[in-house]
Amino acid sequence: MTSGVDLGRPQAQTVGSDEDVVRVRQLVRTVAVAVKLSLVDQTKVVTAASELARNTLVYGGGGTVEVTAVDNGRKPGIKIVFADSGPGIVDLDLALTDGYTTGGGLGLGLSGARRLVDEFDIQTAPGQGTRITVIKWSR
Amino acid sequence: MALSADESSRLAELLTSRATQVTQRWTEVMAGQLRGRLSQAELVRQVQELHRALTDALGKGAADLTAEEATELRAVLAELSRGQARQGFSATETASSIFGLKDALLAELEADQSVGTLRDYVAFSGLVDQMGLFTFESFVRTRESLIADQAEQLLELSTPVVKLWEGVVAVPLVGTLDSARAQVVMERLLQTLVDTGSPYAIIDITGVPAVDTQVAQHILKTVVAARLMGADCIISGIRPQIAQTIVALGIEFGDIATKASLADALRHVLRLTGVETSRRQPRREA
Predict the structure, then answer these.
(1) So where does this one cross the membrane (chain A) (predicted)?
(2) Do residue B248 and residue A115 have CB atoms under 8 angstroms apart?
């Protein structure tokens, strides 16, 4: 799996269908293994990526995911950027509330994903699309 | 590039007059490409069939591969690439065996300058390219349908419901649990519960690589549906990393019993049903 993935540069994957969510998951797992995340952290970051990629698909109407191996000088990590040009999020605080959903899910995807990663940044505005950047550092 | 009526008749003529040499050379090129993975007899048959179809099409004045006169030629090409795709040949090998015809024709044109000109060769080359691309496309189509078939088979295969004990059925989930599979799993499980009259079902997620909210929701729905039918569900195979992820995500399984392994789940059910499991004293060797 690791072969064929050049860790030096960002790996991009478009998200347009359920199969693409699976591809994102596999890509994230490959990079997470390569930057030597522990099994628990691998599972956490893969799950977070799965949630956010599905949000990109379901609420953003599809978009792109970019996975990069990063290093802050002390430890390696994995950075994932989810971008879509969908309707954006009107009330971010509400969207980040556990149990709130507009799509019939459990309402834990966005808030849960934030708890699964070390750094979570979200840029969104109504009509401006959504861009979420998450980082998980190796311990 | 379309062939003029003149060119196609000249080429039909060439293919007929030099039939033996062309087919022989073509077979040699193909044999080299496929490296003995197809029997000589089969190769000869394929080449002769292609040769006949091509000569026919050109004889009728086909200007290119999309022409109506070339219908049979297209059928033969499609048949050839279908066969090779199913036998596991690569797309390059399949297309290259068509391009072998160029070699064969070049050899003939070089040997006898009177039968054709460079212009003829270029025009004919264009036709062979079309044939190659056509094979390539049929090849890809065949492969895609194979993949679709396999995906469907996998969907069926990967969701068995097994009977573990009298009144206890289990669903070992393996791989990604998307909506389509979750639906199949739920249907199978509920049907098996009815068929076997089992009051207990164990859903084992050892083989599920990541449990996100969607997977959890599918499992929860299945459990609720089974409960409506009067069956109790136990979720087993929760590995440490999955447990930590579920906690961080904030998913709650409520009063659904969960166990780390399938063995634990079975023991739990057996205890509930009053079946005693005890170790027998090892029999002493006389």
Answers:
(1) none
(2) yes
Structural domain of A43: 11-137
Q: Which residues of A touch B214 (CB under 8 A)?
A: 50, 54, 105
In chain B, what are the domains? 5-154 (1.10.490), 162-272 (3.30.750.24)
Sheet holding B232-236, edge to edge: B162-165, B168-174, B200-207, B232-236, B257-258
Q: Which residues in chain A touch residue B213, judged by CB atoms under 8 angstroms apart? A: 51, 105-106, 108-109, 112
The chain A residue lying nearest B218, using CA atoms, is A105
Query: Phi then psi for B173, rounded to 5 degrees?
Result: -90, 135
pLDDT 10s digits, A74-129: 999 999 999 999 899 988 889 888 888 888 788 888 999 999 999 999 999 998 89
Question: Residue A47 and residue B251: Cβ atoms within 8 Å?
Answer: no
The pLDDT tens digits of the residues spanning A26-58 come to 999 999 999 999 999 999 999 999 999 999 999
ipTM: 0.83
* Structure tokens belonging to residue B227: 């409960």
Q: How far apart are CA A44 and CA A29, in angstroms?
A: 10
Asked if residue A37 belongs to a domain, the reply is: yes
Cβ–Cβ under 8 Å, residues A82 and A52: yes
Residue of B177, B212, B219 to mutate for A, most A C-beta atoms under 10 A: B212
For residue B50, how many other CB atoms are within 10 A of its CB?
A: 22
Q: Is the pTM of this model over 0.90?
A: no
A50/B210 CB distance under 8 A: yes
Crossing angle of helices B19-34 and B91-111, rounded to 10°: 150
